[in-house]
Design brief:
Layout (H helix, E strand, L loop, with lengths): L1 E2 L5 E2 L21 E4 L12 E4 L13 E2 L8 E5 L5 E5 L5 E5 L5 E5 L8 E7 L9 E4 L13 E2 L8 E5 L5 E5 L5 E5 L5 E5 L8 E7 L9 E4 L13 E2 L13 E4 L5 E5 L5 E6 L5 E4 L8 E8 L12 E3 L19 E2 L7 E5 L5 E5 L6 H5 L12 H24 L1
Antiparallel strand pairs: 1-2, 1-3, 3-4, 5-6, 6-9, 7-8, 7-10, 10-11, 12-13, 13-16, 14-15, 14-17, 17-18, 19-20, 20-23, 21-22, 21-24, 24-25, 26-27, 27-28
């Protein structure tokens, strides 16, 4: 006879082997029951008391939840039934275990995991009930390496983009002077171009690159430089008259934009000298060769490489003749005549201060006697004739004097 916790009783008869089974219900852990045996003569045994123990656990835990497993990981982690033993079967068949804490978290130490392998994870409770396995595939290892800092091309005032190179496929972020940000993606060759506006000389921009794993590079800082000068200098002016200067190395003045490089060219485009215009815009160029005859021009180039139009030409000519003869222009040439002695030895000096010794004939023809003047043609080749004419004229004066004396 079993006396239940609520005082009710239930009975059954022991079989020939003494075994009995008394049907009961509603028993809970910690309660007590009392059991006695009564024979056919109604003799009752002393009671046996039993405490109701915890019921047998025949329910397996839920399959563990396994966090992503990546190549190179040193632990397989996740959650399972609190207090359960978590067992990880590794790719080579070996097993590793750990116990889930009171919150169900577990971390099973492992090593040597490679991308593409699989691991199997189970949880076993205190009643040795084992969960269904959870299988996890080992993924590619986390990329924890930040990209190199971007290489930023020079940034100039007024630029509409910040350009350069960074890790291919990375997101390039430009922090502008006002704190706003602009982004673009580096192409397969690493080139990037981030649209910007309003940049001014002296400002700074900061540029970073972020990869697909959100690793961010150290920033590259660039200072905004002066905008490119794309305006050509004004056309220079050759300021030296080159009349009579061909064949010389006369310094040539050129008026141009201050600081520009001035080059001189002959009529065939050959450079014949260069200099830099001073603060007043004047360049004095000493030719490196004799100035050729023909047009001479100048060209200016500024510090940004902008080239001016070619100047108006200045004509270089050679100097005139230094001879004192009139070259057939009709002007008289006056020789210096020394009056002949009776011995008719005559000395003459021409216009070039050349001395000449001449001898006159003692007699003259009738035509010469009657001639009152001798023409002076002025031809260069007639110098001797002019001198001789002077001599004859002087000689004629002598004869005329003698004739007058005879008369």
């Amino acid at each position: 006879e079993v006396t239940l916790p609520d005082g009710s009783k239930a009975t059954a008869t022991a079989d020939p082997d003494g075994n009995f089974s008394v049907p009961v219900s509603g028993l809970e852990e910690g309660q007590t029951v009392s059991v006695t045996a009564k024979d056919a003569s109604n003799n009752t045994s002393t009671p046996t008391t039993a405490t109701v123990a915890k019921a047998d656990d025949k329910t397996a835990p839920d399959a563990p939840v396994v966090n992503p497993v990546k190549a190179g990981d040193t632990a397989v982690t996740g959650t399972a039934e609190a207090g359960s033993t978590v067992e990880v079967t590794l790719p080579d068949g070996t097993k590793a275990t750990a116990t889930a804490d009171q919150d169900g978290n577990f971390s099973v130490p492992v090593s040597g995991l490679e991308e593409g392998q699989t691991v199997s994870v189970t949880a076993k409770d205190a009643s040795n009930n084992t969960s269904a396995p959870t299988t996890a595939t080992v993924a590619k290892a986390d990329d924890k390496t930040a990209p190199d800092a971007p290489v930023v091309n020079p940034v100039k005032a007024g630029d509409t983009a910040v350009t350069g190179t960074a890790e291919a496929g990375s997101t390039v972020e430009v922090t502008l002077p006002d704190g706003t940000k602009a982004t673009a993606t580096a192409d397969q060759d690493g080139n990037f171009s981030v649209p910007v506006s309003g940049l001014e000389e002296g400002q700074t921009v900061s540029v970073t690159a972020k990869d697909a794993s959100n690793n961010t590079s150290t920033p590259t800082t660039a200072t905004v430089a002066k905008a490119d000068d794309k305006t050509a200098p004004a056309k220079p002016v050759v300021d030296t008259d080159l009349t009579g200067k061909a064949g010389t190395r006369t310094p040539i003045d050129v008026i141009a934009e201050p600081g520009t490089k001035i080059e001189l060219f002959d009529k065939d485009g050959n450079k014949i000298g260069e200099a830099t215009a001073d603060d007043n815009g004047k360049a004095t160029i000493i030719p490196t060769v004799d100035i050729p005859e023909g047009n001479v021009t100048a060209r200016a180039t500024d510090s940004s490489g902008n080239v001016s139009d070619v100047s108006a030409p200045m004509l270089a000519t050679r100097g005139g003749s230094t001879e004192t003869f009139n070259n057939g222009k009709g002007s008289d040439v006056t020789p210096t005549v020394v009056k002949p002695s009776p011995a008719v030895d005559v000395q003459a000096v021409d216009s070039s201060d050349k001395h000449m010794n001449l001898k006159a004939r003692a007699t003259i023809s009738a035509a010469e006697k009657d001639a009152s003047t001798l023409p002076a043609t002025g031809e260069e080749a007639s110098t001797a004739a002019v001198v001789l004419g002077g001599v004859l004229a002087a000689f004629g004066l002598t004869l005329a004097g003698k004739r007058k004396k005879e008369d």
